[in-house]
Amino acid sequence: MCCLGWSCSIPVVSESQALLQGLSLGGSHSCFSFVPGLGMDFLTLFLVYLCFVLLVTALLCLCSGRKESFLARSVTRASQVLSLVIPTQLQRVAHRVAHGALHRLFHTRSCLFVVLHIALQAAVFGEYTWEVFGYCWELQFPLLLLLLPYLLLAGNMGCFLLCSRANPGIITKSNHASLVKVYAYDGVMFQRGTVCPTCTMEKPARSKHCSVCGTCVHRFDHHCVWLNNCVGASNAAWFLLYLLSLTATATALAAITLSFLSHVVQLSNLLHSTYLDAQGQEHPVEIPFLVQHLFLTFPRIVFMLGFVILLTLVLGGYSAFSLYLAFTNQTTNEWCKSRRFGVSHHVSSQPPDRQVVYKNIYSKGIWRNLKEIFRPPTALERKKKT
Ligand SMILES: [Zn+2]
Ligand SMILES: [Zn+2]
């Protein structure tokens, strides 16, 4: 059994350390002593960091498609609470600045999130290329596996460009007459004769006015700040492919990095080693020590891994939701609105005095629904079917 711990004055070169250095993986190990309890504190801090990143990501996702964002409402509520202690003038200024910033961020077309999106991808791929790829190459991982994230990234960037630069289905005076015939009005969520006050045109069924783009969009799904574009009938397919390829990229990066770290643990026999605590007592290596050891040995890789795991979970959930919407022929806008009504997937036989029950009349079965995403129907096709 080898000994990993170093009570600071006596550096003991362990088998695992020699192996890590032999693989040129470990770099220079700093001598640290593991104090029982410190591992738990470290893990708690790490979990707090993970929860914080998850919370911020979830908040950004929540806010990205809403007219009156959750953040804006939170700012209003916070200012109401703070009004008890802060002078009125200062409150007004702070309120104006906060709302102005949020409005600029979420309700005007801006490249800020696109730049952030590209910067995050560049940082993650920079780290993968700089460290993980080289180490995995030394550990003789298959080349095709190591190249997979780059292939997925290329596909993802292609979908990103096509989706963000595409016309999502903007309703203009010239195409209005044909678009208004594409979908039937369900009489609950989409009423015939509803006019958009900004565009001064009758809204076709399933369309919505996007306040960020300032146009009505055919089969409106949502406005995506990460793409700086609306998602509508004409780019819904690219959006779905973009989302799936992004999820696959994050999953591949997480899987390869996890596999690399587990290889390091296996090769160095870390799990069957012991360490010396500050009192010089020997303990078998446990998970908190292992995580701390890996974090201190490969800080950037573990940091990147935490981020891509969170991304995989968030994007995986969102992809599952988007696939559910695609299979049931619903848009995000319709799904959100349908929460206000009762939802029925069957022909309703509700008595007329009961509350209005929304029924999705656009679903035609999984296969045809999916086909509709990739080949949006035209007025001519609907005419042929009826
Ligand atoms: Zn409009
Ligand atoms: Zn928009």
From TrEMBL:
Gene Ontology BP terms: protein targeting to membrane
Organism: Lepidothrix coronata (blue-crowned manakin)
Major localization class: membrane
Catalytic reactions on record: L-cysteinyl-[protein] + hexadecanoyl-CoA = S-hexadecanoyl-L-cysteinyl-[protein] + CoA
InterPro entries in the cross-refs: Palmitoyltrfase_DHHC, PFA4/ZDH16/20/ERF2-like
Protein name: Palmitoyltransferase
Domain remark in the UniProt entry: The DHHC domain is required for palmitoyltransferase activity.
Molecular function via GO: protein-cysteine S-palmitoyltransferase activity
Palmitoyltransferase DHHC domain span: 192-338
Keyword Endoplasmic reticulum: yes
Subcellular location: Cell membrane; Endoplasmic reticulum membrane; Golgi apparatus membrane
Entry's family note: Belongs to the DHHC palmitoyltransferase family.
Entry membrane topology: Multi-pass membrane protein
Keyword Methyltransferase (UniProt): no
Keywords: Acyltransferase, Cell membrane, Endoplasmic reticulum, Golgi apparatus, Lipoprotein, Membrane, Palmitate, Transferase, Transmembrane, Transmembrane helix
Regions that span the bilayer: 42-63, 111-130, 142-163, 239-261, 301-327
GO cellular component assignments: endoplasmic reticulum membrane; Golgi membrane; plasma membrane
EC numbers: 2.3.1.225
